[in-house]
Structure formats: C-alpha cells, structure tokens
Amino acid sequence: MIPVNSVLQVGHFPEIMQAEIDRRLSPVRHLNLDAPIPSGNFEAILIRSNTKLPQSLIQQIPSIRLVATCGVGYDNLPLPYLKANNIKASNTPGVLNDAVCELAIGMMLSLMRRIPESQEYVKSSAWSKAPFKLTTTLAGKRVGIAGMGRIGQDLAQRLEPFKVKIAYTGPSPKKVPYTYYQSIQELAKASDVLFLACPATSKTEKLVNAKVLDALGPSGYLINIARGSVVDEVALLDALQHNQIAGAALDVFDNEPNPNSAFFSLNNVLLTPHIGSATSETRIAMTNLAVDNLEAFFTQQPLPSEVNN
Ligand code: NAP
C-alpha cells in the first residue's frame, strides 16, 4: 500500500518500534542526520518526537508532503516551514495517555512520600537506627493542572479518587468540573501540587518562572511531564536549592539527554529520563498510529491524527 522508497525514516527508533515499523512498511533509513540523505522518491518522513527535524533536511527533499511524528508533542518539527510549503504533519495523540498519566501519578506519590529515598533507607540499614522521617498526605490537597487537554483531563480523572481538589489553567475554560484560573500564577497560588501538561510552544516557554514558583510556595510540589522548555530551569534550581518550593518531579528537561547536573545533588527532586510514554504497549500503539497516518496519506484518506496548527 505504501510505495517502495517513498518513506524516509529520520533517526533511530527503539528496537520494539523499529520492529513494528518494519512489519508494516520498508522505509529508507536516514539514521545519522550528519550523513548525506539517501536517494529515493520520498513523499513522507517518519520521525520520533525526540528527534529534531532540521528544516534544511526537508528543504533538500521538495517532494515531501507529509511528516509523521511518533509522539503527541510536535515541537520537534519546523511547523511554520511545513505550513508555508503545504506539507502535512501528523502525531500520535491519545494512545499514550495511560502511560503518561500513570507515570505522572507515580512521580507525584514518589516525590511526596519520598519513596526512592525510603528504599535507600532500608537498603542502607539506616532504618535499624531510627524510623524514616514523616512525609505528607495527598488527600485533602489542592492539585492544579496547567494544560487541560487529553493528558490533563485523563490525569484529572485519575486524581479524583485521591480526594483532592482539582483546578486548572489554559488558554480558555473547558467543559470540565474543575475550577478554572486564567493565569498559571493564580493556579500555582491555589495549588499544593502543580502538574504541567501543556505543549511546548513559544507561548509556554518558561511559563513556570520565579514568580510562579514563588506563588506555589514552600509546601508546593511541581510535576513536569510536559516539556523542559515550559519551565525556567535556572529559576527552578534556585527555588529548589533554597527550599522555596517543597520539591519537583521532572520527566523532561531543557537539555535532554544531558540535563543540568545541578539537579543531581538536590534531595527534593525526583528525576526520570523522559519516560512518560515508555512502555512496550504504548510505544507499539504510537508506532502503529504513526504508520496508520502514512497509510492514510498514501491511499488519499483523511489522516487519523493530523496536526492542525
Ligand atoms: P493536548 O490534548 O493538545 O493538550 C494540551 C493542552 O494544553 C490543551 O488543552 C491546550 O489548550 C493547553 N495549553 C496550550 N497553551 C497553554 C498554556 N499557555 N497554558 C496552559 N495550557 C495550555 O495535548 P496532550 O496530548 O494532552 O499532550 C500535552 C503535552 O504533553 C504534549 O504536547 C507533550 O509535549 C507532553 N507529553 C509528554 C510526554 C512525556 O513523555 N513526558 C508524553 C506525551 C506528551 P487548548 O485546548 O485551549 O489549546
């Protein structure tokens, strides 16, 4: 269904995803972006959301009409160029909500109950000398979500049984039973736990700055499962170093996969290596949705998940 030599795979995919891709099509692989582009009659590009697609690469292949990215975030794509040149883009929304929300909830509980530290306490036999320190209960707390989209709404539903009060912010109110705040600063002030679930755009860059962290306050927790760019990392490090917030759980960073090492020496953080969607089931589902988009494109069907920006 997909013509031979018509899809250029840009960058590496994990083994399980590559196997799924190869089961359904035979893309020409362009793994090293510094190497010359292989020859072919490419009409589409397949890429992961953690691989940045250089505009210069697409400029060299004027026949490209679709970029299918594997991931819900598409901040890796040069969208203005794609739009200006009538090149479609697709992403993989929805199929990763479960994995991302499960991680987000796990990060929140691990941070607040200090689960990694308490495991070390047992392993180091410190427990035999004194009981572990007291932590804090989630029930009764106020939870804010910046970005009440697919992941934000799924997260809110999963939070309800934890007996918390839920509020959110975003460009406009949604039809959801939670309190809406117009600004993230107001939301932070009204939150004990602040989740970030918005996209990385020019408008969300450093959305969480020193003022927002100050509003969150010394008993407030920040959980970032969105993108590193949404947080001013310098301000966050400063707030963590001076206990101006209680803690932060971060799955995403400015400089991945080499985040600022100043985070490593802090004892009020929980750090994970951008693993929101990193389960086998989810990665297979994401790959299949990306390939479904390619198939729809080549059979002139509507794309199942076109990016409309
Ligand atoms: P989505 O359905 O598009 O939801 C994003 C929400 O953010 C929308 O409701 C949007 O509002 C809102 N938003 C836009 N600008 C905002 C702002 N300035 N302040 C607050 N909210 C704002 O996307 P999704 O599927 O939920 O995914 C959200 C993001 O999560 C992705 O873009 C991606 O970067 C990140 N993510 C991370 C991982 C990970 O591995 N950690 C995995 C998956 C996704 P409108 O509806 O009004 O536009």
TrEMBL record:
Gene3D superfamilies: NAD(P)-binding Rossmann-like Domain. It holds the Pfam family 2-Hacid_dh_C. One of its GO terms (molecular function) is NAD binding. InterPro entries: D-isomer_2-hydroxyacid_DH, D-isomer_2_OHA_DH_cat_dom, D-isomer_DH_NAD-bd, NAD(P)-bd_dom_sf. Residues 41-308 form the D-isomer specific 2-hydroxyacid dehydrogenase catalytic domain. One of its GO terms (cellular component) is cytosol. Residues 105-276 form the D-isomer specific 2-hydroxyacid dehydrogenase NAD-binding domain. Keywords: NAD, NADP, Oxidoreductase. Belongs to the D-isomer specific 2-hydroxyacid dehydrogenase family. This is D-isomer specific 2-hydroxyacid dehydrogenase, NAD-binding protein. It comes from Polynucleobacter asymbioticus (strain DSM 18221 / CIP 109841 / QLW-P1DMWA-1) (Polynucleobacter necessarius subsp. asymbioticus). The lineage of its organism: Bacteria, Pseudomonadati, Pseudomonadota, Betaproteobacteria, Burkholderiales.
